[in-house]
Design a protein that fits this description.
Layout: H1 13-23, E1 32-34, E2 42-47, E3 51-56, H2 62-75, E4 86-90, E5 100-104, H3 123-138, E6 141-142, H4 143-147, E7 163-166, E8 169-173, E9 189-190
Parallel strand pairs: 6-9
Antiparallel strand pairs: 1-2, 2-3, 3-5, 4-5, 7-8
């Protein structure tokens, strides 16, 4: 897998196989292969037909994995689009110092920026993304989010590499490692 960052962790199939077999032994017989298109934050490996293994590429990536495991079950029902469903958070192990996750596979392709090719950005996709942003904006923020130090940032990751499309429309939003509470002065706190 090509390196994208200075100081990137070495991640290959034998390492991922060992981690999966140790923490998810029921999946030890499933085929494992790297995806041709991995993300910039996580190396991605298909596990069988229904799972995806995500491993942070850089030291310190465990925080984003933990954040997604904690907050995606809260955020998912509020959105008009599928998001990753975390099956397990794996522990660091020999040769790999970070937490990692296994999520359910979501079919789709990463959209292209322009053009008429399948997966190209369209007006429909822009409308779909606007609906996601609006749903996030209108969601009541749980009180626990205001005290979670991992949610203090305001960064978002609605980059093309974090979206999936099918038939020119959004199929999923991926990678919620940049999830934050936004403006904490807005009164949208859930009871």
């Amino acid at each position: 897998m090509p390196s994208l960052h200075d100081g990137e962790l070495l991640i290959d199939v034998p390492l991922v196989r060992a981690l999966v077999d140790r923490d998810l032994p029921g999946c030890a017989s499933l085929p494992l292969r790297p995806l041709a298109a991995s993300g910039s934050s996580n190396a991605l490996f298909r596990l069988g037909d229904e799972l995806l293994v995500r491993l942070p590429r850089q030291p310190g990536g465990s925080a984003a994995i933990a954040k997604e495991a904690r907050w995606l079950p809260v955020v998912a029902p509020l959105l008009p689009v599928p998001v990753p469903e975390v099956v397990i958070v794996g522990e660091p192990g020999p040769g790999y110092p970070e937490a990692w996750s296994v999520v359910r596979w979501i079919d789709g392709t990463v959209p292209t920026v322009v053009g008429d090719a399948p997966g190209s950005t369209t007006d429909g996709l822009a409308e779909d993304l606007a609906a996601v942003v609006l749903a996030l904006r209108e969601a009541a923020v749980p009180r626990a989010a205001f005290t979670d130090p991992e949610l203090c940032g305001y960064r978002g990751d609605l980059l093309a590499e974090n979206l999936l499309v099918r038939d020119g429309r959004r199929a999923a939003v991926l990678d919620f490692g940049g999830l934050g509470v936004g403006d904490p002065t807005v009164d949208l706190v859930a009871a």
